[in-house]
From TrEMBL:
SUPFAM superfamilies cross-referenced by the UniProt entry: FAD-linked reductases, C-terminal domain, FAD/NAD(P)-binding domain
GO molecular function per UniProt: flavin adenine dinucleotide binding; sarcosine oxidase activity
Biological source species: Halotalea alkalilenta
Family annotation (InterPro entries): FAD-dep_OxRdtase, FAD/NAD-bd_sf, MTOX
Pfam families associated with the record: DAO
Protein name: N-methyltryptophan oxidase
UniProt keyword annotations, A-Z: FAD, Flavoprotein, Oxidoreductase
Domain FAD dependent oxidoreductase span(s) in chain numbering: 7-371
Needed cofactors: FAD
Length: 391
């Protein structure tokens, strides 16, 4: 079997691995990126046309530097690839009476969003129901005692295009990409790591594992206990003939009850389309990435429509246009793990980022590249360290 020698090997070229490979290659680091499929693909956590991005993230202030850097990176990347990657159509967060509602495990998600916007001087407005509906009639189902936050600089990303553009730029900067190549094991060797794939052996000083929902297969303890993989579903519903979605409609997160499952998020119709994508999250059933049921039953779409959209999102019919299954990989506190592996020297772990990672991925690429290069960094990775868990 061929042996390849490099400085850094990146395992997994999805949202995180593509960004890290791009950042390392453009710093002049010899990098080999490996993926079992040919990203962008629809087998992991980064497919489905769109991902929400918002700067005042209610998950906490520690994430803000990543998303702010990412917004800069997406614009640079657009210039480099000549494609539209980031639509800054604005982002709306709706919470129940007195700001009630939980999202990604944060009971104070709405209040944190507003506080974070104020702390980081992120442009935003808090709106009453009538103000919001006058501007965006699709939110007609909002109650008068609910609260809305509007961030004009939020919007949506095109995940498949972002990944493809970063991988193309990494290759132009001399990265080697081994696609349709499965990493089978990672071992320590004197002064570095040995990564065995089904096609070649790679010897490197460092390895980054960004293998998404498959990460535990490679990482062992304590990750198999800390990372849980969950099937999620995305649904596209057709618009009613008289639907009124203004051309500048935002993405939204709508919390209508107290629990994490009492919410849905959605996107405006994409240019030229007469449907909207919406989804919620489930945190009850775990799976393994290789056993994912990729078929989404019509009853699942109907259940989502009945529980979340009916009577809330105006102008959207229950006619299902499309549906897809996707994977979340979550930690116990629904935060990220960005840290050295505790027992595998030379291995840096980038967890699959618990269902809210895409918006941060370009910034995480920069942060991880700076960490590996020993460069000064604007990012503090301490809140994402493994030691916060009882390992
Ligand atoms: C339905 C859904 C909606 C989401 N919505 C949002 C949103 O609106 N906003 C937001 O910010 N985030 C969102 N997220 C989260 C975000 O998309 C993820 O955090 C992010 O895409 C994860 O990227 P990743 O690189 O960790 O995983 P992936 O993109 O899945 O990449 C992992 C890669 O590793 C490869 N791999 C795995 N094992 C091996 C191996 N042994 N050898 C070689 N390669 C391997 C896989 O093939 C894959 O390409 C959502 C996620 C889902 C599923």
């Amino acid at each position: 079997m061929q042996t390849i020698r490099t400085d850094v090997v990146v395992v997994g070229l999805g949202a995180m691995g593509a960004a890290i490979t791009d950042q390392l290659a453009r710093r002049g680091v010899a990098v080999v990126g490996v993926d079992r499929f040919a990203p962008p693909h629809d087998r992991g956590s980064s497919h489905g046309e769109t991902r929400i991005t918002r700067q005042a993230v209610g998950e906490g202030a520690a994430y803000v530097p990543f998303v702010l850097a990412s917004h800069r990176h997406w614009r640079e990347l657009e210039s480099a690839c000549g494609e539209s990657l980031f639509e800054a159509c604005g982002a709306v967060v709706i919470a129940g009476a007195a700001g009630r509602g939980s999202h990604h495990g944060k009971q104070d998600f709405f209040a944190t969003t507003v506080a974070t916007a104020e702390r980081f001087a992120i442009e935003h407005r808090c709106l009453e129901r009538d103000e919001l509906v006058a501007r965006f009639p699709q939110f007609a189902g909002m109650h008068r005692d609910q609260h809305a936050y509007f961030e004009p600089g939020g919007g949506y990303l095109r995940p498949e295009r972002c990944i493809a553009a970063q991988l193309a730029r990494a290759e132009r900067a001399s990265a080697t990409l081994l696609l349709d190549t499965k990493v089978e094991r990672i071992d320590n060797r004197s002064g570095g790591v040995r990564v065995t794939t089904d096609k070649a052996v790679i010897e490197a000083d460092r390895a980054v594992v960004a293998a998404g929902a498959w990460a535990t297969d490679l990482l062992g303890a304590p990750f198999e206990r800390l990372l849980t993989v969950r099937r999620q579903t995305l649904h596209w519903f057709g618009l009613e003939a008289d639907a009124r979605f203004p051309a500048d409609s935002p993405v939204h997160i709508w919390m209508h009850g107290a629990g994490d499952a009492d919410y849905f998020y959605g996107f405006p119709p994409l240019p030229g389309e007469r449907s909207v994508k919406v989804a919620t999250e489930q945190d009850r059933v775990a799976t393994h990435a290789d056993q994912l049921d990729r078929q989404v039953a019509a009853t699942e779409s109907q259940a989502l429509f009945d529980a979340h959209l009916r009577g809330r999102l105006a102008g959207v019919s229950s006619r299902v246009v499309d549906a897809a299954a996707c994977l979340y990989t979550v930690t116990p506190d629904q935060g990220f793990i960005l840290d050295d592996h505790p027992t595998m020297p030379g291995v840096f772990v980038v967890s699959a980022c618990s269902g809210h990672g895409f918006k941060h991925s370009a910034g995480i690429g920069q942060a991880v590249a700076e960490r590996l290069c020993g460069a000064e960094s604007e990012f503090d990775l301490a809140p994402f360290a493994l030691e916060r868990f009882d390992t």
